[in-house]
Amino acid sequence: MSLSRYKGYTTIEQLKESEGKEVTLRGWVYNLRGKGKLQFIILRDGTGICQCVLFQSNVSEEIFQNGKLLTQESSVMITGKVVPTDKAPGGFEIDVTNLEIVTLAKDYPITPKEHGDAFLLEHRHLWLRSSRQHAIMRVRSAVVKAIRDFFDGNGFKLMDSPILTPNACEGTSTLFETQYFDLGKAYLSQSGQLYAEASAMALGRVYTFGPTFRAERSKTRKHLTEFWMVEPEMAFFDLNDDMDLAEDLVEYIVKFVLKTCQQELKTLERDTTMLEKVVRPFHRMSYSEAVEWLQKNKIPLITKVDGKEVETEFPWGEDFGSTQEEAIMEQFDKPCIIHRYPTEVKAFYMKRDPDNEKVVLAMDMLGPEKAGELIGGSQREDNYDLLLERIKHENLPEEEFQWYLDLRKYGSVTHSGFGLGVERTVKWITGAQHIREVIPFPRMIYRIVP
Ligand code: 4AD
Ligand code: MG
Question: Is the Cβ atom of 353 under 6 angstroms away from ligand 1?
């Protein structure tokens, strides 16, 4: 794309191309410091932050006085010479020759002092301008680009799944419901997977990428009610192929961010030692091996009985919670895939292991550094009768799944896929404390505004 239409304006990101030259930047005042004949304007323009030095003797009196009128988050156009410096972030500063105020901001509510979480969340529309949030959003953008590049570059086709759906995919307890004209209830999609399966039978290797919804009652640091998920689905892939692909994808994303987001990771003060170790092959263990490990290491199952927490030896058959996941992951410095979970704790569409009826060919990838579950996936049940049995067993409406069963009727093949949570991945890579920081406008059980 030619940028000549925007001739005359430079972005902070591009300053190094203009060393020694005069440029005009457009942006907002991030911070200000003044002393006597000098005014330091810390300008942000969306691409970065740059110090602009307004020296009284270099400009007219009017311009200098305008500089003194500036307030935090006022919008301005600043012209000046690009001078290298090792003192300022980004490596360049501007010797100001002209300054034009676009709009003066009054009493910007977010100041450099500390603010509480509730205040910042209420002001999310402005909080996004802060340097940490800005850096997180840029990493998020890089993660999404890495995902798209990875799949597009490996012969996958993007096949969008609908968001309004007539049925559940991931259990009926977390469905957002709405009335759909005269056709009854519709639900916001919990996952695009079922449609991705149909798409894979048409195009071979596909991915669906979009927002997904879970009416999660949990108030953890890892749950949103609206989150983005990428879901590849591949015809003729078995569980092993699926796990290999998941490793390839995660390795690719981390490498891409390390390569393209050094500045952002520095702003976030992210120690990248562990991220640099994210190289295939990752660790793998079966659910049964993981349970044995938990028992041997005395990591209990914690349940509530009459409001009191009770600890018991972790029994085979229970699903893992964050206590177990974090304990298992503490021994590893790169992700670990746990496979072959008990049938009862996993979704209806997963294929049972032909070698052990009690488990399904499922896999979860857990991240190190308390990242939790990054990926959930499986080989799918491809036998019509067995799938129908599972649908009935889960009391799912058979008619609504007729089209899904059709896929097992007309040329059914081994196929697999998985879903990677974008926010879980960004939270892990950025080291953000809470998942609400890694999506522009978080949706949580207790918040829908702004
Ligand atoms: O393990 P989940 O529920 O798997 C599925 O939805 C499958 N249908 C995917 C597939 O096989 N195509 O979710 C997949 C991932 C999780 O590993 C996690 O990263 C993320 O989605 N995730 C959430 N992220 C944020 N908030 C929530 N409430 C999440 N629930 C799942
Ligand atoms: Mg899962």
Answer: no
Q: Which ligand number lies closest to the CA of residue 377?
A: 1
Average pLDDT over residues 307-318: 95
CATH number at residue 63: 2.40.50.140
Residue 9: how many CB atoms within 10 A of its CB? 13
Q: Cα of 280 to ligand 2 centre, how many Å?
A: 22
For the CA of 320, the nearest ligand: 2
Answer yes or no: is pLDDT of 100 > 80.
yes
Confidence of residue 291 (pLDDT cuts 50, 70, 90): very high
Nearest to 257 by CA among 427, 373, 89: 427
Query: Residue 309's domain is classified under what CATH number?
Result: 3.30.930.10
Domain that residue 96 falls in: 3-103
With a cut of 70, say whether residue 208 has pLDDT above it: yes
- Same domain for 345 and 400, yes or no, is yes
Phi first, then psi: what are they for 326, rounded to 5°?
-70, -35
pLDDT at 1 over 80: no
Q: Considering the domain boundaries, does residue 377 fall inside one? A: yes
- The number of domains in the chain is 2
Task: Specify whether the CB–CB gap between 77 and 26 falls below 8 A.
Answer: yes
% of the chain with per-residue pLDDT over 70: 98
d(CA 447, CA 375): 25
Task: State the ligand closest to the CA atom of 212.
Answer: 1
Given the DSSP bridges, would you call strands 205-213 and 157-158 parallel, antiparallel or unpaired?
A: parallel
> Quick one: average pLDDT of 251-266?
97
The string of pLDDT tens digits covering residues 210-223 is 999 999 888 899 99
Do residues 204 and 167 lie in contact, with contact meaning Cβ atoms separated by under 8 Å?
A: no
Task: State the burial class of residue 77 (Cβ atoms within 10 Å of its Cβ: 0-12, 13-18, 19+).
Answer: middle
Whole-angstrom Cα distance, residue 8 to residue 423?
37
226 ligand 1 Cβ < 6 A: no
For residue 104 the two structure tokens come to 């003066």
Q: Is the Cβ atom of 382 under 6 angstroms away from ligand 1?
A: no
CA dist., res. 20 & res. 93, Å (int): 10
For residue 7, what pLDDT is reported? 67
Residue in 424, 434, 437, 445 to alter for ligand 1 test, most ligand atoms within 8 A of Cβ:
424
**Same domain? 139 vs 223:** yes
> How far apart are alpha carbons 250 and 293 in whole angstroms?
25
Same domain, 9 and 145: no
